[in-house]
Write a structure and sequence with these properties.
globular; alpha+beta; single chain; disordered N terminus; 181 residues; Protein Transport Mog1p, Chain A
Length: 181
């Protein structure tokens, strides 16, 4: 009987160990053109947006951390927008600064934020911008990377409280982004 209890206890420990998923295992989201890792499964809010430039296909993946998670950030977002080649393309180098500035201004206006920093960046030779915004008068921070890859704009965003800015999860999310085509 004692052996049976020990065996049952060992089996329980084995099954408990096998079913345990470490918290540092992130979920890969893969689109036709890119991949990125989120801390949990994001919601897919993709669709088509009607604009003055025509209908734009927009893929949006959003993970909002709930209050009961131990996540360092409040939200992680990947937005992928496909523009008509005639509207914007990374080959149009004379238009890049204005294009990125309009994109940054759009986010600033949407979130009523204050620009804290801005720098040029790139991925696989394609141009980008990295910005940090103050939100809610110092209560929150939004970190954003914009990349224009041919006629596709990728926007990677994290939102966190001001005291948790520059945490490792921001870099893990941002640095996991890859172009796959």
């Amino acid at each position: 009987m004692k052996t049976l209890k020990i065996l049952t206890g060992l089996l329980f420990l084995v099954f408990a160990t096998l079913s345990f998923t470490p918290t540092d295992e992130w979920i890969m989201v893969k689109t036709e053109n890119c991949k990125i890792f989120f801390p949990q499964e994001p919601t897919d809010q993709s669709g088509t947006v009607n604009t003055a430039k025509g209908d734009l296909k927009v893929n949006i993946y959003l993970y909002k951390a709930s209050a009961n998670t131990k996540d360092d950030n409040l939200a992680y977002i990947l937005t992928e927008t496909e523009y008509p080649d005639s509207v914007m393309n990374s080959d149009k180098t004379d238009q890049l600064d204005a294009f990125f500035q309009k994109s940054i201004d759009g986010v600033l206006n949407k979130f009523h934020g204050k620009l804290l920093s801005e720098s040029k960046t790139a991925i696989d030779g394609y141009p980008g911008r990295e910005v940090k915004l103050d939100l809610q008068n110092g209560k929150a921070v939004m970190n954003i990377r914009f990349f224009l890859v041919k006629n596709r704009m990728y926007i990677l965003e994290t939102i966190t409280t001001a005291e948790k800015d520059s945490n490792k999860s921001i870099e893990k999310f941002m640095n996991s982004f890859e172009i796959i085509n």
